[in-house]
Amino acid sequence: MADFHQNGNIATLHNLRTRSLDEMTYELETFAQTRKMALILPCLYSELETEAMPRILAELSKVTYLHRIIIGLDRADEAQFRHAKEFFKGLNQNHIVIWNDSPRMLALGAQLKDMGLAPAEQGKGKNVWSSLGYLIACQDSAVMAIHDCDIVTYTNDLLARLIYPVANANFPYQVAKGYYARVGSDKLNGRVTRLLVSPLLIALKKVVGDRDYIDYLRAFRYPLSGEFAMRTNILPDLRIPSDWGLEIGVLSEAWRNLAPKSVCQVEIADDYDHKHQDLSEADADAGLNRMSTDICKAIFRKLAADGTVFTPNVFRTLKATYYRCALDLLDAYYNDAKMNGLSIDRHKEERAIELFTENIMRAGHFFLDNPHETPFIPTWNRVHAAAPEFLANLREAAAADDAEYD
Prior knowledge:
Protein name: Glucosyl-3-phosphoglycerate synthase
Keywords: Glycosyltransferase, Transferase
Structural class: alpha/beta
Strand content: 5-15%
Enzyme class: transferase
Radius of gyration: 21 Å
Strand order of the largest sheet: 1-11-6-9-5-2-3-4
Organism: Sulfitobacter pontiacus
Helix content: 40-55%
GO molecular function, one term: glycosyltransferase activity
């Protein structure tokens, strides 16, 4: 059974195993009568061919409280888009597959580029941003959730627990972040959270001093989870990072725009496993190598925006402090794994720490050398101000693609 600890920064909603899924689903169905709920699934076409997606589809088909499902489809040609539409016909809810690479969508992207408002790069951030734009254009949902499409242990209990805190009008939460233990195949997973984010935040507190933002991020048990839910009224002002800093970026936006009492984290799964990224030590632009650098940059940018001054000396000190903190935490993780009968490869873990140590400096140099970088995709409010017709055109383009390639 889970504990009931509260950290004092954000509310933690635990799974105490005292309530059935049927009871929670009934209550969500009641909420849905006056507060329509939507789900966004940012998806690569290749994920349709994995073991995870058929399971997710089967579980979602049982969900009765969702009003709309939006599937943002990346890296698909016309034949693959047609196949994706057929694949998702198994859903019982109103749903649409948005073909992000269609001629219509590419034309809309060119319009944004001409206005200087286009996302800086392709990827999950752009996919989520486009899907949010479609949802905003629909103007019919009060609550939305997002989760990844590579969860091999998925059950619809995950979605129910994720969306409940923001669907319940009696709760004050505008944002709910999912968390879980990253255990699978008898191993302790979640390397970037365990070996980078946690020790980096400890090191930052030692080097730059007490910062409310650092305490806020440290309050999240799994800050890099891809599962979160929000009330849709906050979406038009949400800044979405275009790089691998998406999850940290969304939490930072919640920090910037909302009171701490409006944010919670919720335990959504006992058993969670998904696709594991390679460390990609030889390629700084791939895998966890790229991800770790982007996450560091996202944290540095936010601290700088709040008044923290970074210099080369600060980053050198931070590198040394992080390395010591990470090794200390590795001892704790190793003992925790052994006590629970899990395996952990200390050599590989230390190699990851060494890579992350270098990437802290790499991110620091990039931050100092590019002070004018604007890594966020413009908010939908800004797009609307520049082109009031754009959201309607986005919705019409998605509907036209849906009709033409049926």
